[in-house]
Amino acid sequence: MVMMMMITKSVLSGSFLLLLLSSTVSGLGSVVTRFYSQVRNHVSWQEAQSYCRRSNAYIDMAVLYTHSDRDRMYLDNYNAWIGLYKNSNNWDWSDGENTNFYGWRRYEPRNADTCAYVDYSDKKFVGDDCGTYFFFLCHKRHKRNYEYKFMSTSMTWSEAQQHCRDSDKYDDLATFENIGDAGGGGGNGSGDSSGDGGGSGDSSWVNMYSFIKLENFPVWIGLHRDGGTWNWSIGSSEYGSWEPGEPSDSGDCVSISSSEKKMSAQNCSIRLPFVCMNDNLILVKENRPWEEALEHCRNLIAPYYYHYELVSVQPSDHDYVTSRVIDAETEEVWTGLRFLAGRWLWVNGADMLYSDLPTCPVEVQSCGALPKKDTGILETRDCSEKRNFLCYRTWF
């Protein structure tokens, strides 16, 4: 990386502005990064949207703009009810099997727990309230062997039990008869994890992966249909990777499959896990001139190896970044756009891809602002004017 330091006199303030420009030979592209997190609570689409918006950790439900966004969504983990439940003070299996296998996670179950699910992330049993909604596992017994089937419908424990029992293909909610059925270790049914065994030479540890395996299930994303028009929960995007025959008239909310990453229309009231989104942008609702905005971003406290800069905007990010400044208290927000040495540039060294900027701007209008209303362009403004501004987090 080539480091270039430029000192130029501020026409307006009479002070000297130190601009540290970092660039590579090829320039810097998009600086906007979106992060996606799967939430394993099973709720309706509206409840999922409310959860993502209320949480300090997220912005909104997931919006997809590119295939790389899709590929950054890791949706492998799930919870699935099994046939283990609390009967008085004892934990029993739904089908009445007298088995001593209880593959509890350490410190599980808790006193208030009444039913058990298996967590795919560690293949351990976890206690919960029987009225919670999860996916579930049914089994069919063949003499001493069990055949297991993952069900990607969200139900309470009792509903799941009834569904398995009513099926012609399965007998009951999943029972694991010995350590070889579900995998490594567990306690004695009372939270004791002293049997937390398993190892590279333990065949039962291998069996864990054959019975509790990667599955394909639906999760909510932020796309829904309103008045016949498909809209994202935040911003706008043309992205669509639909299942064959979709979008259908099955519902007005959209799920994406966890493994295949294909989209389907669903009834908005069904319960599913969901995906929330965050990014590396910070809207600062303080009115400052451009130079102070630049300094403020650079002085923000960031995690180790990170720092903040005034944002650069590429045309491909324009719609999304505009959606992130909708709550600004000024009609426009400062960006890292500056006219210096006879040309427009981004102070972080990013590629300049906007071709509609004035080649010879009015002398004082040498700083760039982004309007809250999505006009598709950047405005040139007097650098001494005070506005909110948008920072982004990046590596040193």
UniProtKB/TrEMBL annotation:
Domain C-type lectin: 36-139, 143-277, 283-392
Protein name stated in the entry: LOW QUALITY PROTEIN: macrophage mannose receptor 1-like
Gene for this chain: LOC108894265
Pfam families: Lectin_C (PF00059)
Signal peptide: 1-27
KW S-adenosyl-L-methionine (keyword) present: no
Domain of life: Eukaryota
InterPro entries membership: C-type_lectin-like (IPR001304), C-type_lectin-like/link_sf (IPR016186), CTDL_fold (IPR016187)
Keywords carried by this UniProt record: Signal
